[in-house]
Amino acid sequence: MITRVIVKKSTYRDSISLMKISNSISKLPGITQAAVVMATELNRRVLSEAGFVDAAIGRASTSDMIVAIEAKEASSLDAALAETERLLSPAEKTTGEKAPPTSLEEALKLVPDANLAVISVPGQFAKREAMQALSKGLNVFLFSSNVSREEEVELKHAAKEKGLLLMGPDCGTSIVNHKVLGFGNAIREGTIGLISASGTGLQEVTTLIHKAGLGISQAIGTGGGDLSEEVGGITMIQGFELLEEDEQTKVIVLISKPPSLGTMEKVLEVARRSRKPVVVNFLGADVDPSTLGKLRQASTLDDAARVACELAGVKLGGAAPVIPKETMVIALAEHKKLARSQQYVRGLFSGGTLCYESEIVLQPLLGEVFSNAPIKAENKVRGDAPSKKHSCIDMGAEEFVEGRAHPMIDFSLRNKRILQEARDPETAVILIDVELGYGSNADPAGQLVPVIQEAKALAKEAGRHLSVVASVVGTEGDFQGLANQEKALSEAEVLIMPSNAQAARVSALIAAGEKIEPAILGRSN
Amino acid sequence: LSNQFELSFLEASSVGRVAYTRLKEGGEGTVQGVFDSAINILFAEGLVCLVPEIVQRGPLNVTLRLPVAPPRMSSLGVRAGDRVRVHGFALELGNRHLVSFGSARIYSPRKKFSLPMLTNGEIDANMEIMRKNALLFGNMAGLGELLALMSPRTAKATAKNLNIFASFAFGRIVRLEQAFRSEKKSTLEDAVSELIGLGPGLTPSSDDMLAGLVLLCVLYGKNRGCAQRASQLLAQVIAEEARGRTTLLSEEFLRQAASGRGNEPIIRLCAALLTGRRDSVERETRSLLAIGETSGTDTVLGIVLGAMFCTGRRLGLIEGESI
What we know:
With 525 residues, chain A is of the alpha/beta class. Chain A contains 19 helices and 19 strands. Chain A has helices at residues 15-26, 41-49, 55-59, 74-94, 104-110, 123-135, 149-161, 199-211, 234-245, 261-272, 301-311, 325-337, 352-366, 398-401, 412-423, 444-461, 482-491, 500-512, 518-521; strands at 2-8, 31-38, 65-71, 116-119, 139-142, 166-167, 173-176, 179-182, 189-196, 216-221, 251-256, 278-282, 296-297, 344-349, 370-371, 391-394, 427-435, 467-473, 494-497. The longest helix of chain A has 21 residues, at 74-94. Chain A is globular. Chain A starts with a strand and ends with a helix. Chain B has 323 residues and is α/β, with parallel strands linked by helices. Chains A and B meet through α1, β2, α2, α6 and α15 of A and β2, α4 and α10 of B.
């Protein structure tokens, strides 16, 4: 073994950076030990006792940082040192000479011909910044949440008066002129235009369209509050009018969780006048079929993708809301492996709409589904409370993200919850969603696989078999690599389903077995 | 000022009592470190930390409403070594920002809680809730693994696989408890000096643990109405021993904790533990666990240890000497 110690004089990094660097270096090939710590007296002593003997350690003071690496051979050590330097350097840049622009004016000086501003500031500042952008003639993608409904109405009226589009607030995803804003995936160019009040809903439908070989013209996010009574669907209607005039768009898809009744009628009225075929997917909304006219209604997100593709001229097989026979066989075989106590589906979602859609799919099949974001108010439970019967938990809800990154990026809380569910003798199936694409974690499968393996081992030790079912929202163009991600999950014995709704149906089948009448699994409204 | 420089204005929503005293002295300081969660400024009287509101209030903290999301201090373009000047109720930061604290509220946490103290048995039950939540949701890369040693069910398996820092600290915490019960200053000095500055992080894990421990001991005494001699000695020793043995930030935190002061999430958890119900203990534990990388978990460990020291419950790791 060879060791190397480097002392960085008067160098500070926050704890998160120090731990990340230590972990990254420790995992490099040929490295047996690595520590990046502040040079306190005791840390120096611990390093000495761990075999790091170097005079520089003795000379270091408490404001210095020590990098200590032990490797099997010199080449590994050199590689690790180079990697350490690289990992230490980006933080320098963030405080270096070229500071990023700190105001809209500064940003506009850098890109004077910009026509769209992406705004992501704390809610209390969002209106001010968005108004400023609108006054400069910029369309706005407003990622910020915690903007009041009154401010949203004011902003959207101001945008409409200027002929500009205000996507948001709380807008997670848009794909404008094939540029992804917020979270989103690499989607082929095509003829289907979408407008959505749901970020993960938009990701799910666009990726399914892509997987079917088709593509999109535009995907406009409106923000979750757009279809409320107060806002009245201003952005959805504006977006609809834009797509109606857009020559590239041949089919239009509308996506939302249940809108308010008045707004739904207003949006449907506009849609009914369209010259183009329109698919309406208002998840869980009570739409009177007689009011639809020529509009096509879809009950789930995969159904919306399927109908849109059909209208665009391609019959879609993969995402049809019917469980193929071979999947049924696998699911029923999983069911037979369950212990008597294992009865319930436990859904743990990073996508809020995917959580909601799963409840919509599971409830008719299994009965009551409890959630921190329930379909019915009486089924509301606290997200951080132990699961109750069939449960779907939105891990992206406010109670989980305060002070943390979104679960599409930071898997720590969901991973802990997976282990918690695995310890529960009543858990039959853990149902999860995995989002790839811009903004998401660089390696979701890498985050999940060790935990899923541990969860399955925990259940096995207790004499149970734990099923894990997932759907992966992504395309082969996403930087994480769809095939790699699905392969890694499959190797950890995760059942991968082509869509979120299908994953929910299969989970229900595994948990309830023959008790579920197979025929209803494929029935759409 | 705004005519002299192209400064952007930032508004502070709160100023910790200690930070306020240091800023009121006026004068110049230097940016010591720039991190996502803080800009630390060194004045002649000590450190002041500019933090986004999400970090919450603390004795050394000036909380800022940041017009960027995620609210990262590192995105402000300030550099280590930049000069800082205080003018009245404003702070000029690296010729780029003017931070006004004129309308900020002073944060000075109450050491005496509004609700009556629970019995030692009830505190014991709350402590168990904290411990289990920390094991479930905490980060075990620092000393958090030691929480598992307090349960006979998990102790053996954990003891075999402790990380290097937890393994090093294990016996020293046992000696700290013995020193606490001995009520001898010299024994406490030896025990504390064997722990200060140990572990990963800008505030090393052991320091976070000691800060939680001493803060709980001080607050327990204040609220019981009869400070234990051992707690008073521990606070005195930690404040003295911290000097020069650890990072400057950690030294400051330890000295504040020994005086019964701490950041808001830590104080709230101590209050929940000593006076609250199960749901508030759970909520505040989770909130503290979310702080830093290992800091939250290490602090929870310290608070659990502090409660054990004060209520007289012996450490599981001593009882289970067979492990």
